[in-house]
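Input sequence (236 aa), recorded before submission:
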Amino acid sequence: MTLSAQSCTRQLRLLGSLTKRRQSARLHICQVGWMDHCTQTERGDPKSKEWSEPESDRYVETGRLSSRLEGDTMSGSEAIFSRLKEDHDKHRALLDRLLETEGDSSEREELFTELTKELKGHAAAEEQAVYSTMLRKPETTDDTRHSVAEHHEIDEMLNDLAATDMSSGAWLQKFKSFEHRYRHHIEEEEEDHFPEFAKHLSENDEKQMAEVFARRKSSEKADAEVTPEKKGEAKE
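Predicted structure, token format:
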């Protein structure tokens, strides 16, 4: 069956569930194919009749079109949330290593310092890059406020740990409680909040978020400090 403009239109209607970017790419392919078909017909190319719609469909069905599109530069939202998850994986590894330490060893002290600076730097950059944007969107305001409140709680727990004798059983008990709390926080972000946030981001939002996080993370981590402060003594 010869490819016609009507066939192109029918194919494009099936793309309602695709992103505008992929839909645009498919339209371009369809338009180029139609122009090629017209050129071949004008020249009397005997192969023009063989340029059929099924062949075009097979190209899509084999996944080659999808591969080309998915091989493009990662979108802003995918980039920013993948970057945040990379940090989360690093945090999980640090938590695991700290659980294996004992007493007030230099290893425990060094790992705790690294964890503290990493978490505080991550949280500050995340709030500037992601949460500042999501707070402006009514659909995600509640989830964003919830995450910011958890950041404050996590910060207090880190400071309380820093004020506790590392050689004591109390420190290990507090650390295990902290570890459980922090893992819950990042799992909730990854499984619930990030997918929901991504639904409400414009292309400009995505670009800005990725740029701000990349710029702020290293700076915030460098400025972060281990601040010994008992939980009940935290400043308002």
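Checked by second reader. The radius of gyration is 26 Å.
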